[in-house]
Design a protein that fits this description.
The complex is a heterotrimer. Chain B is an alpha/beta fold. Chain B contains nine helices and ten strands. Chain B has a single domain, classed as P-loop containing nucleotide triphosphate hydrolases (Rossmann fold). Chain B has a six-stranded mixed β-sheet, with helices on both faces. In chain C, a hairpin with a 2-residue loop joins strand 2 and strand 3. The chains are: A mainly alpha, B alpha/beta, C mainly alpha.
């Protein structure tokens, strides 16, 4: 019985440790001033988004520049469905009737958002997973451009640029925490599943993998769908946090931010998702406070607006130059009391896989 | 002239060359032979500077000066020319342009022109195809272009990696004839070759590399017989 | 008929502009395997330089020179600081870096110049319509086409007949071999960046005259186009990139003319959608490089 417990903990520790970290941080934050709590909620939303991105990029090695399209779809889906019916007539009078008359709860909205994003991921994934390396990244980027263009000229919203408002702002710390844990769990289950492992095997050399029977495209598709689902959840959470958004929210800024977090944390590990998000959230919080003239533990600095974005970009470049494997180096958190025989082999130091076999 | 001491080449955790030492003076020819994967290419690549410096350990000296930290570009300027495996000519550029690139490290404009013409005389086919894209040349012609290009630098040390690969016997003869001329012009030659016997015949010293280590050397008749016997044995074993 | 001619002129003009900055991307990619997303910043900085200098420089030509100079310096600094240390990194890492640089520079502009659009009055005399025969166009259209053709010609001449041009072509084909022959890697890559800077600066100047308003994300639209053009034209092929850029310009005008008005705002989606289709059919682009490099 104790052995069963031990082996379970061994297997799941990489995930449990991360959840534990989140819980501890949440508890600490609840004692700190309001602004910290707000930063944490934003951080948790980012966590879900990055987890979504990670599910695809970390496992397949294909860098996608278009994942924020899933975020957009998630946000708009839940937005359209959860705005109170009375407000709908004013805000989005031109939607099909069944949307006009339905209004579901936030949680349902978030789930449906994830599902719709997943379906979308499936549809575009079918052709796109056959591409590798640069072509795939660019293909996904083209998808983002299309989604952005479509939502910007979103007919149902007469106020222009795809603006939606009066989305119920329900995302509070506890809720964000739960969804973040769910996102991490899904990511963990995927990466330790048979498909996830085989996908990782194909990361280094897709041709070799195919030659031993791994259907790389199909597994990538699964990864894409799961990844779209989680990213969609993140988009929905975002929608329920800001309450009002336009299509331009889901474009280059978030693309860059999520990619930056992934790279800084370590593109190949789930721990990297948490570590990276935590790191960036803390820095963002401090810089935001200083920009607004507030103090952090009594220290004030006078910095111009936009410094946060500059700092993140600088850190990103610095990490890529000096430590391309990120803070975690692609490693997960291991149970410290393992027996020697279950040691894992050295992680790969490649930030990305071009799958070209030539560099 | 060229002095190699305790050369080690590793790609990650794989050691391609474990311990190689030899010398080659002006007007001397050294041949490196051995089975596939023995580390022959890695050796000459290391000397030419084609490998990452983190992969290479040991001492390489030209006339007493160490090549440590000297980049490939600078080595070309120091008189080292490599004719790499597969000759790697620039297919999109013309024959003439390929040749001119060989002289990149040289400053003496007028002499470069003279050398270009000399190359086209020495390798007449190049003269005839001077303005054609190098990619349209046949295998043998490309090999000649690669050699001519390397010679455009007026090297003091010429490294050749499998120059006879894929060439018809007649062309191989021509290649070795040129090498002989070069030796007479006092150029130091390091030759990696599959055609071990041919190389041994030509060279002043021959090294047999196996698993990255010099197994046998030959610079006299008895040594040559030893190596020849080794190869015959290999062939015999694989039958 | 004249209407068609006008559209054709429009298409060629826009196509030329797109071709210019697509060349900028292709040049750097061919030599250094970097897709320089920060090219957009070259355009933006050219615009802002004009904005800053147009007040106090005597002759317009000085404004032009200033813009080009600023961008070239920016390009060289960018190469030296961010890309040279990463020379050996895989292509997607380099793409992420260039993406970050673009983000960084946009935000620096946002911080220093503010996010509000600025109007720039430069070369407005070129935007007045003229008529050639019965076809109406602007002088700018002619200038754009003329300048583009000249620059492309000049580039071809440089690549064909100068020492650095031959080295650039060699390095684009086989960088390692070029180095072994003594070609100085740093000089070659820096040259590619500098030339790319000139092309982008000129495109930025033309764009500034054309649009007359500046925002920090001015160049981002252009870079997206160049990005895509280079891919469909075939990464590593200069002709391909130029043609790709040209094609997208023409396609944009074509769709503008042909699409019924309800779909007009989705014109860009059609363009991107078509790009996706191209990517799927020919992931290596239409014109593969001499070595058949895969994207």
């Amino acid at each position: 019985m104790i052995n069963l417990f031990k082996s379970l903990v061994n297997r799941w520790w990489s995930l449990l440790s991360l959840i534990l970290i989140l819980l501890i941080v949440a508890v600490i934050v609840s004692w700190l001033p309001r602004s910290v709590e707000r930063s944490m909620i934003v951080g948790l939303i980012n966590l879900v988004l990055v987890a979504g991105l990670y599910i695809f990029v970390g496992n397949s090695g294909v860098v996608s520049f278009g994942h924020i399209s899933f975020m957009a779809i998630g946000a708009y889906t839940t937005g359209l469905l959860t705005i109170p019916t009375m407000a709908k007539v004013v805000i989005i009078p031109n939607v099909p009737d069944f949307i006009l008359t339905t209004s579901i709860g936030t949680t349902e909205g978030i789930l449906v958002a994830g599902i719709v994003a997943a379906v979308f991921g499936f549809i575009i994934g079918i052709p796109l997973v056959r591409l590798t390396g640069l072509a795939a990244g660019i293909g996904m980027f083209a998808v983002l451009l299309i989604v952005n263009n479509v939502f910007t000229h979103f007919e149902p919203s007469p106020s222009g640029s795809g603006m939606l408002t009066r989305v119920p702002t329900d995302t509070k710390l506890f809720m964000a925490l739960i969804w973040a844990i769910i996102a991490l769990t899904i990511a963990f289950i995927f990466q330790t599943s048979r498909i996830g492992l085989l996908l990782r095997a194909s990361r280094e050399d897709a041709i070799a993998a195919t030659s031993i029977g791994i259907n790389v495209s199909r597994y990538r598709l699964v990864g894409m769908v799961v990844s779209a689902f989680v990213t969609g959840l993140g988009g929905a959470l975002f929608a329920h946090y800001v309450g009002t958004f336009g299509a331009d929210a889901f474009f280059l800024q978030f693309t860059f931010l999520t990619l930056a977090i992934l790279v800084i944390g370590g593109i190949n590990s789930l721990a990297g998702v948490v570590v990276g998000t935590f790191f960036i959230t803390v820095i963002s919080h401090i810089l935001d406070r200083w920009t607004n003239g507030d103090s952090i533990v009594g220290i004030t600095m006078d910095i111009p607006p936009g410094s946060r974005e500059i700092a993140v970009a600088l850190i990103m470049v610095a990490v890529l130059v000096f430590r391309p494997q990120g803070i975690t180096g692609g490693r997960e958190i291991k149970w410290p009391f393992r027996s020697r025989s279950t040691e894992d082999p050295e992680p790969s130091n490649n930030v990305t896989s071009d799958n070209t076999g030539a560099n | 002239m060229l002095e190699v001491k305790n050369l080690q080449v590793s790609y990650g955790s794989i050691k391609a060359v474990r311990n190689v030492s030899f010398k080659c003076s002006a007007g001397e020819a050294v041949a490196i032979v051995g089975p596939n994967g023995a580390g022959k290419s890695s050796t000459v690549n290391a000397i030419a500077g084609a490998l990452k410096s983190s992969s290479v350990q040991g001492n390489i000296k030209i006339n007493g000066k160490s090549l440590d930290g000297v980049s490939a570009e600078q080595r070309a300027g120091a008189g080292i020319s490599l004719v790499p495996e597969g000759h790697r000519i620039f297919k999109g550029l013309s024959v003439r342009e390929n040749l001119s690139l060989g002289a990149t490290s040289r400053r003496d404009r007028a002499d470069i022109e003279i050398d270009m013409n000399r190359m086209m005389e020495r390798f007449p086919i190049l003269g005839r195809l001077a303005d054609r894209p190098a990619g349209t040349l046949s295998g043998g012609e490309q090999q000649q272009l690669a050699m001519a290009r390397a010679l455009m630098a007026r090297p003091k040390i010429l490294l050749l990696d499998e120059p006879s690969l894929g060439l018809a016997p007649l062309i191989v003869n021509e290649v070795f004839a040129v090498l002989q001329e070069l030796r007479d012009e006092n150029i130091a030659i390091v030759l990696v070759e599959q055609m071990a016997l041919r190389a041994m015949d030509f060279a002043d010293h021959t090294f047999l590399l196996h698993h990255g280590v010099v197994e046998t050397t030959a610079d006299d008749a008895s040594g040559k017989e030893l190596i020849a016997a080794y190869f015959k044995q290999e062939v015999g074993n694989s039958k | 008929m004249t209407e068609i001619m006008q559209h054709v002129v429009n298409a060629i003009s826009l196509g030329s502009l797109f071709a210019l900055f697509s060349l900028g991307i292709a040049l750097i990619f061919g030599v250094a395997r970097i897709i320089n997303f920060a090219l957009g910043e070259f355009l933006t900085f050219a615009g802002y330089t004009i904005f800053v200098t147009v007040g106090f420089m005597w002759l317009p030509i000085f404004v032009v020179i200033a813009a080009i100079l600023v961008v070239v310096i920016l390009a060289l600094v960018m190469e030296r600081i961010a890309f040279r240390p990463l020379r050996e990194a895989p292509a997607t890492t380099l793409l992420i870096v260039s993406f970050s640089l673009s983000n960084l520079l946009t935000n620096i502009l946002l911080t220093t110049a503010g996010g509000r659009a600025k109007t720039v009055d430069f070369g407005s005399q070129f935007v007045t319509p003229i008529s050639i025969g019965s076809v109406r166009m602007t002088l700018l259209d002619l200038v754009t086409i003329g300048v583009t053709v000249t620059l492309i010609l000049a580039l071809s001449l440089v690549l064909r007949y100068t020492k650095i041009g031959i080295q650039l072509r060699a390095a684009a084909e086989d960088f390692g071999m070029a180095k072994l022959l003594g070609v100085r890697a740093n000089v070659v890559v820096a040259s590619a960046f500098a030339i790319s800077g000139v092309l982008a600066a000129v495109a930025g100047i033309i764009l500034t005259v054309r649009i007359a308003t500046l925002t920090p994300s001015f160049g981002n639209q252009a870079v997206i186009v160049a990005f895509i053009a280079t891919v469909i034209g075939g990464l590593g092929s200069l002709t391909g990139a130029a043609l790709g850029g040209f094609f997208i310009g023409v396609l944009t005008i074509f769709l503008e003319v042909v699409l019924p008005s309800e779909f007009q705002s989705f014109r860009d989606s059609f363009v991107f959608g078509l790009i996706l289709v191209v990517l799927l059919i020919r992931p290596n682009g239409f014109i593969p490089t001499p070595t058949g490099e895969r994207a």
